[in-house]
Amino acid sequence: MEKLVSKVFITKVDELPENLGKRVYVEDGNLELAVFKLANGDIRAIENRCPHKAGVLSEGMVSGEYVFCPMHDWKISVVDGKAQGPDVGCVKTFEVTVENGEVYVLFDGSGEASAPLECSHSLGNTIVAGKAGE
Ligand code: FES
Asked: Is 13 helix (H, G, I), strand (E, B) or coil?
């Protein structure tokens, strides 16, 4: 059976500062994302809620493919959503696509996506990066 995918506009590429997060609300404000444009041009979207104590990840420092939570400095991958050891946990990651300078997040029709197998805390899901300019 074919999966239904909904594509939701979240921002323009030009509105994403490199290596800083942007807070975006989707799903009628019920879901908060942290969106990042990395130094390599990749655009990533993750749940804007640290798996430790709900720090706001869009306000964290970005280095490479990681964001450092502003609350207690956990290092979270913006690629697979996993906290780096010794910390344990993960956040949802979302598939992103870029079309004509506009960034969209893709949701499957069920509104649910599977969590990474290693992630036991999260609400989790999978990601495919969009590249600026695609
Ligand atoms: S809330 Fe993010 S490290 Fe504690």
From this structure: helix
Half-sphere exposure in the Cβ direction for 81 (13 Å, CA): 33
| Distance from C-alpha of 30 to C-alpha of 86, rounded to nearest angstrom | 31
Distance 50 CA to ligand 1 centre (A): 6
| pTM across the whole model | 0.82
The rounded distance, in Å, linking the Cα atoms of 34 and 128 is 15
Short-list 33, 51, 39, CA closest to 132: 39
Give the gyration radius of the chain's Cα atoms: 14
Amino acid identity of residue 67, one-letter, is V
pLDDT per residue as tens digits for the range 70-95: 999 999 999 999 999 999 999 999 99
The pocket around ligand 1, CB under 6 angstroms, is made up of 50, 52-55, 69, 71-72, 74
